[in-house]
Amino acid sequence: MMTDSATIDDSPAMMAVMERAGEAGVDIVPIIFDRFFAEFPETRALFPHVEAAAGRMVNETLEALFGLAEGAWWVNTTIVNFVDLHRNYGAIPMAQWTAWIDMTVDALLEAASESADGGAAWRRQAERLKAMIDA
Fold it and tell me: Where does the signal sequence lie (predicted)?
């Protein structure tokens, strides 16, 4: 179900980026985590077995962003749930949420060699996701 003009335009462009990234065969998971830990080294201790959570965390972020673009019925509850689950680790500064989302989008766009329409679509949805988390 589409909810506004931004979501109507964004999901096809976002899917095209996902397809190009998949065709490129670049594993963005370690790229994202390397960047995140470089910026927030204190968070590394929260991941004693990073490989156990890394792929799931990236997938959930991408799914949430794409779900926002599609106006998926499940996306709001899913975002509330994964933010709530992260409270088990203490207070997570908004700067870390913002960096995580931006790093995920950046890595995906780099893997797809995308900068124009698809990039703008992913970034619009990233801003929506950040606003939901910050609310």
Answer: none
